[in-house]
UniProtKB/TrEMBL annotation:
GO terms for molecular function: ATP binding; cysteine-glucosaminylinositol ligase activity; cysteine-tRNA ligase activity; zinc ion binding. This is L-cysteine:1D-myo-inositol 2-amino-2-deoxy-alpha-D-glucopyranoside ligase. Belongs to the class-I aminoacyl-tRNA synthetase family. MshC subfamily. Monomer. PANTHER family: CYSTEINE--TRNA LIGASE, CYTOPLASMIC, CYSTEINYL-TRNA SYNTHETASE. L-cysteinyl-5'-AMP binds at residues 43-46, 58, 81-83, 224, 246-248, 280. It is an enzyme of class 6 (ligase). Its EC number is 6.3.1.13. It comes from the Bacteria. The keyword Protein transport does not apply. Residues 39-334 form the tRNA synthetases class I catalytic domain. It comes from Streptomyces inhibens. Pfam families: tRNA-synt_1e.
Length: 409
């Protein structure tokens, strides 16, 4: 699948600091030490009802990771998927009478437009579940042949008991896992499973649903977790630097993915850090497709809001916080954008050297974008109050905001 065009990342003097980031698996901050090529996998959308502000906030967090790494003069190998076949997508298409492939294509196209408008840097590889199927089948066969997977009425399940590290990503107890499994696509109630938590790797063809040739598995379609594992292993390999997504993916998705990969390869870990963004809510409830309480990036753009203001609204919240989307959040971002634009519109201003260092320090410290915004606010206030004589300063501020925060003034 093609991704979307990259916005230019302006060059900055000096270089940024190494990223310290909260890792769900260890429950604390870790200093990432990627090689010259940092490797990151971020779970992509299931393409219906995209792109809402919750999606945008999560992708904003991982865009910052990429920008911090680029600022340390590393290359970034970023991979993202599109879950372009899955139960909820098929259910939605059935309900509306849409063709499921047309729905997926239309929503993926809209997502690309939104990502471009928000200046999110594209992944190097953008891979659909459907196109990954030929790579998924042999992985499921290998798991089955190694005794890490078993058949139940034609469906193939992964045995969580096959990975000694199972449970280490989310750190949840069995009861919490069971509840979340039922809530998030699992089937803990199904009879005949070795462990109620065991997730499906391959679902045998169902009447009226799309299916693909699965070799010795028979016709069917892939489970959700193995999709991301196959894509990540194919393009990044084991031990990549960051596995990313919203906090609702920690269990079961990232837990199961790690176990699939570790059982497959015998290597540990799947990812060096598991990084999760908080949930954006609307009217007191998590913004979610199933509840339908959504604010779309495309709607707000169509209403005439500058995408840079949307981006500032996202950046005003720490990525790990759960927060609420409101009109006031957007209004505040629009006011801030206007203040900043005014401040950089003059030919000279207060020196921006300290500001650049502050933004770099804030972002390297678990992506503290609110602290970065506060630093820019102080520079803009000083510019308004007494100005300054540094001729290059406003230009440097503009370039820094674009390169490090994806905000074009
Ligand atoms: N296709 C799978 C991942 S493989 C999926 O979860 N798709 S999604 O469309 O449901 O979500 C895409 C990303 O947005 C995920 O990382 C998810 O955690 C995140 N996300 C979904 N809802 C919210 C929300 N309300 N706030 C923040 N992030 C969210
Ligand atoms: Zn995923």
């Amino acid at each position: 699948m093609h991704a979307w065009p990259a916005s230019e990342v302006p060059a900055l003097p000096g270089q940024g600091r190494d990223l310290r980031i909260h890792d769900t698996a260890t429950g604390g901050r870790v200093t990432l030490d990627p090689g010259p090529v940092a490797r990151i996998y971020v779970c992509g959308i299931t393409p219906y009802d995209a792109t809402h502000m919750g999606h945008a906030a999560t992708y904003n967090a991982f865009d910052l990771v990429q920008r911090v790494w680029l600022d340390t003069k590393r290359q970034v190998h970023y991979v993202q998927n599109v879950t372009d076949v899955d139960d909820p997508l098929l259910e939605r298409a059935n309900k509306t009478g849409d063709d499921w492939t047309a729905l997926a294509e239309r929503e993926t196209a809209l997502f690309r437009e939104d990502m471009t408008a928000l200046r999110m840097l594209p992944p190097r590889h953008y891979i659909g579940a459907v196109e990954a199927i030929p790579g998924i089948v042999p992985l499921v066969e290998r798991l089955r042949d190694a005794g890490a997977a078993y058949e139940l009425d034609g469906d193939i399940y992964f045995s969580v008991a096959s990975d000694p590290h199972f449970g280490e990503v989310s750190g949840l107890d069995a009861e919490a896992m069971r509840l979340l499994s039922a809530e998030r696509g699992g089937d803990p109630e199904r009879e005949g499973k070795k462990n109620p938590l065991d997730p499906m790797l391959w679902m045998a063809a169902r009447d009226g649903e799309p299916s693909w040739d699965g070799g010795s598995l028979g016709r069917g379609r892939p489970g959700w977790h193995i999709e991301c594992v196959a894509i990540a292993l194919d393009h990044l390999g084991m031990g990549f630097d960051v596995q990313g997504g919203g906090s609702d993916l920690a269990f079961p998705h990232h837990e199961m993915g790690a176990s699939h990969a570790q059982a497959l390869t015998g290597e540990y870990p799947f990812a060096k850090a598991y990084v999760h963004a908080g949930m954006v809510a609307l009217n007191g409830e998590k913004m979610s497709k199933s509840k339908g309480n959504l604010v779309f990036v495309s709607t707000v753009r169509r209403e005439g809001t500058d995408p840079a203001a949307i981006r500032l609204a996202l950046l005003a919240h720490h990525y790990r916080a759960d927060w609420e989307w409101t009109d006031a959040v957007l209004e505040e971002a629009e006011e801030r954008l206007a203040r900043w634009r005014d401040a950089v519109s003059r030919p000279d201003g207060p020196s921006a050297d300290a500001l650049l260092a502050e933004i770099r320090t804030a972002l390297a410290d678990d992506l503290d974008s609110p602290a970065a915004l506060a630093a820019v606010d102080r520079w803009a206030a000083a510019q308004t109050a007494d100005g300054g004589t540094d001729e290059g300063a406003p230009g440097l501020v503009s370039r820094a905001l674009d390169a490090l925060l994806g905000v074009a003034l």
